[in-house]
Design brief:
Blueprint: H1 4-43, H2 51-76
Length: 80
């Protein structure tokens, strides 16, 4: 059986690694999507809309539709 200190060390390492493998990928995806949406909103002006209006529509399309689709698949039990 492992000693108490090695168990504590193991838990500490797993807790630290959880950030890299669990929390960081979605945060990076949202950051990249938001910056990409800002670039597209800046490069493609639409008359009658503000930058923030275009940006929010693009973010909803890029992040909202895939999120809604994944939630729908989870709740309905469909797997591809």
């Amino acid at each position: 059986m492992a000693s108490k200190s090695s168990e504590d060390e193991r838990r500490r390492v797993f807790r630290r690694m959880a950030w890299y493998y669990v929390y960081l990928p979605p945060v990076l995806a949202v950051l990249i999507a938001a910056l990409g949406a800002a670039l597209v909103a800046w490069l493609a002006p639409v008359e009658g809309t503000s930058f923030w209006g275009r940006w929010s529509v693009i973010v909803l399309i890029v992040l909202g539709i895939p999120t809604a689709w994944q939630l729908y698949k989870r709740r309905s039990g469909k797997q591809e």
